[in-house]
TrEMBL record:
Regions that span the bilayer: 5-23, 43-64, 76-102, 146-163, 184-204, 216-240, 324-348
Compartments where found: Cell membrane
Coiled coil: none
PANTHER family, per the entry: PROTON/GLUTAMATE-ASPARTATE SYMPORTER, PROTON_GLUTAMATE-ASPARTATE SYMPORTER
Pfam families: SDF (PF00375)
UniProt GO BP: dicarboxylic acid transport
InterPro entries referenced in this protein's UniProt entry, alphabetically: Na-dicarboxylate_symporter, Na:dicarbo_symporter_sf
Protein name as annotated: Dicarboxylate/amino acid:cation symporter
GO molecular function: symporter activity
Organism of origin: Scytonema millei VB511283
Record-level GO cellular component terms: plasma membrane
UniProt entry tagged with the keyword Membrane: yes
Membrane topology: Multi-pass membrane protein
Keywords attached to this entry: Cell membrane, Membrane, Transmembrane, Transmembrane helix, Transport
Length: 406
């Protein structure tokens, strides 16, 4: 049986086991979660994180060495950022639109606002851009800062092109690093069904179904938004004649892992593998676009933050003025590019959006419980948006090449 099939089976069994614990053995949940489910899930995530940074760093450098020149790197980056901006704006608009239509904050009662909710200091756009430049590339690698790792790899990749043959030994070393960690990833994948089972079981068992029912419209809205956006990307693939069915079949392993782990970073190595081996994407584009998208592209966060901000505003009966809507839209758009690709990162960034819009940050406490249960689908959307934008770049480049030949 394929690993992707085993992961899907583990997801289904994990959900069933979580529900069984809730209704059959509620008293055993704290013990099982603390001593079995959480440790297994955390161990699996740590194993995945072990290979993420080396694979991103090495694959990006190798991808840049395959690109003809520095001008091409700049062209790839400009095209990707342009498509990211357009599709992220659509995701932000969709989240806000669904919140206005569904009104998830109307009629929600029975919650006690936590006064202990902390406000995360908002980072300005300028500060965020400056923070992309690492002071020490080794520190960026050791701390797992993907944005700084990508920046470091980009500089090294461009320098390798300028140096030429003198960098041959270094490129050989980087190739060895890539192949070694790719093999380690293949070994780690055998533990994926266990890790996914533990993670989803823990989420279901500890959060419970009553909270989901009470916030049903909220959960429904986020799931609906993610599903619609995935459908939008499928339409883009259809328009580009990029075989949407083949696309989703090719990326099924990485999408399954994304759903089970709720981590875009965890799904990154598999997505790179799926893009090149299953979907047949060009190596230079896949190894450049997918790591960059993993660090920047967060359509799931774009939908979440706008939808959640309006949910809080409705809950506190705050008038939705044009200035408030603009503040929510702009802050959501910027935050979507700086949300970490790890479980629960959206909750932390919620406070940034709420603070920027002048909304009560205590409202985060209301949705913290159900966030993990919607995080999986939002992460699937993140991976889909990242990989489809890579396909868009590939199509864009192929069209430009055809026009140049003509």
């Amino acid at each position: 049986m394929k690993i992707s099939t085993l992961i899907l089976v583990a997801l289904i069994l994990g959900i069933a086991f979580g529900i069984l614990l809730i209704y059959g053995f509620p008293n055993s949940i704290p013990f099982l979660d603390y001593y079995l489910l959480s440790p297994l899930g955390e161990a699996f995530l740590r194993l995945i994180q072990f290979v993420v940074v080396p694979i991103v760093f090495s694959s990006l450098i190798l991808g840049l060495t395959r690109i003809q020149n520095a001008t091409q790197v700049g062209r790839y980056t400009l095209k990707l950022i342009s498509s990211y901006a357009v599709t992220s704006a659509i995701a932000v608009g969709l989240g806000i639109f669904l919140a206005i239509v569904l009104q998830p904050g109307i009629g929600v009662t029975g919650f006690q606002i936590s006064e202990a909710t902390q406000v995360v200091q908002k980072q300005s756009l300028i500060d965020w851009l400056v923070s992309l430049i690492p002071v020490n590339p080794l520190e960026a690698l050791s701390t797992g800062n993907l944005l700084q790792t990508i920046f470091s790899a980009a500089l090294i990749g461009v320098a390798i092109q300028l140096v030429g043959d003198k960098a041959t030994n270094f490129v050989g070393l980087i190739e060895s690093v890539y192949f070694i960690f790719e093999k380690i990833l293949a070994l780690i994948l055998y533990t994926a069904p266990i890790g996914v089972f533990a993670l989803i079981s823990s989420a279901i068992a500890t959060q419970g179904l009553e909270l989901i029912l009470k916030l049903f419209i909220y959960v429904l809205g986020l799931c609906l938004g993610s599903t619609i956006m995935i459908g939008f990307y499928a339409l883009i693939l259809f328009i580009l004649k990029a075989k949407p069915v083949h696309f989703f079949q090719s990326f099924f392993p990485s999408l399954s892992l994304a759903f089970g782990t709720a981590s875009s970073n965890a799904a990154l190595p598999i997505a790179l593998q799926n893009a090149q081996e299953n979907y047949g994407m060009r190596e230079d584009i896949a190894s450049f676009a997918i790591p960059l998208g993993t660090a920047l592209k967060r359509d799931g966060s774009a939908i979440l933050q706008g939808f959640n901000a309006l949910f809080i505003a409705q809950l506190y009966q705050i008038p939705l003025t044009p200035s408030l809507m603009l503040a929510i839209a702009l802050s959501t758009f910027l935050v979507s590019f700086s949300t970490a690709g790890v479980p629960g990162a959206g909750i932390i960034m919620m406070t940034t959006v709420l603070s920027a819009a002048g909304l009560p940050v205590e409202g985060v406490a209301l949705v913290a419980g159900v966030d993990r249960l919607t995080d999986g689908l939002k992460t699937v959307l993140n991976v889909v948006s990242n990989t489809v934008n890579a396909v868009i770049l590939s199509h864009w480049e192929s069209t430009s090449l055809e026009q140049a030949v003509e």
